[in-house]
Design brief:
The protein is of the alpha/beta class. The protein is built from nine helices and eight strands. It has one domain: Alanine racemase (TIM Barrel). The protein has an eight-stranded parallel sheet with strand order 7-6-5-4-3-2-1-8. Strand 4, helix 5 and strand 5 form a beta-alpha-beta unit.
Length: about 230
């Protein structure tokens, strides 16, 4: 279990590093932090919440729902960051996340839009880009991304596209990771009205911010326990 001191120390350290990284880019740059709580309990989330963090992300619809239920007295902004199975769409709509980062195909967007329309709801989403061309990763092909983005904007009136998301290349090579972030930023710049560029995790958020990220998703770095320090 995360202690109060752990949570404060983790969040302080994270904010300091984010501040340093964003100031290298511009003093006007704002970077939002989403705490990824997928491997942690609601008690741990409460600790990090009490340290000051307000946005949290889950990668499974059922975990999102159960954390929301357990923590429904806290004004947390919940993000959905995981692969969305079509048979979970209705559950995700009912969970009403602040932002879904992982819209990863036109087909899924069409299906989500249809179900949103049936329920007379809307959802803020990011288009996930497979910027590292890894088979294990979800997301649209970078060369089709801008066109798919515009098609979703035109065809899916119940989806509000806010920008793009990517997971950096799974590599020890900084240049490889940077390439995937730079590519995603180039796509972001071409997407009409896009305001959120979600990239960077515990191991690579500084690089992501240097490449133009304005939203990072941090799990292990924010939830590390005493024994890991
Ligand atoms: C787990 C996860 C993260 C956080 O990863 P850490 O390395 O623990 O910071 C970020 N984004 C997505 C999509 C994830 O699944």
């Amino acid at each position: 279990m995360l202690t109060k001191e752990n949570a404060i120390q983790n969040l302080d350290e994270l904010i300091k590093r984010v501040e340093f990284a964003r100031l290298q880019v511009s003093g006007h740059k704002i970077v939002q932090i989403v705490g990824v709580s997928k491997y942690n309990t609601s008690e741990d989330v409460t600790c990090v919440y009490n340290a000051g963090q307000r946005a949290f992300g889950e990668n499974k619809v059922q975990d999102l729902k159960s954390k929301q239920d357990e923590l429904n007295d806290l004004p947390i902004s919940w993000h959905f960051i995981g692969t969305l199975q079509k048979n979970k769409i209705n559950n995700l709509i009912d969970a009403n996340p602040t932002l879904t980062h992982s819209l990863d195909s036109l087909d899924l967007a069409m299906e989500l839009d249809k179900k949103l329309a049936q329920k007379n709801k809307t959802m803020n989403c990011l288009l996930q880009i497979n910027s590292s061309y890894e088979d294990s990763k979800s997301g649209v092909d970078p060369k089709d991304a801008v066109e798919i983005y515009k098609t979703i904007q035109k065809e899916c009136s119940n989806i509000t596209l806010k920008g793009v998301m990517t997971i950096g290349a799974n590599s020890e090579n900084k240049n490889e990771i940077m390439k995937s972030f730079t590519l995603t930023k180039e796509i972001f710049d071409q997407c009409p009205d896009a305001t959120i560029c979600s990239m960077g995790m515990s191991g690579d958020f500084e690089l992501a911010i240097a490449c133009g990220s304005n939203m990072i998703r941090v799990g292990s770095g924010l939830f590390k326990k005493n024994e890991d320090l």
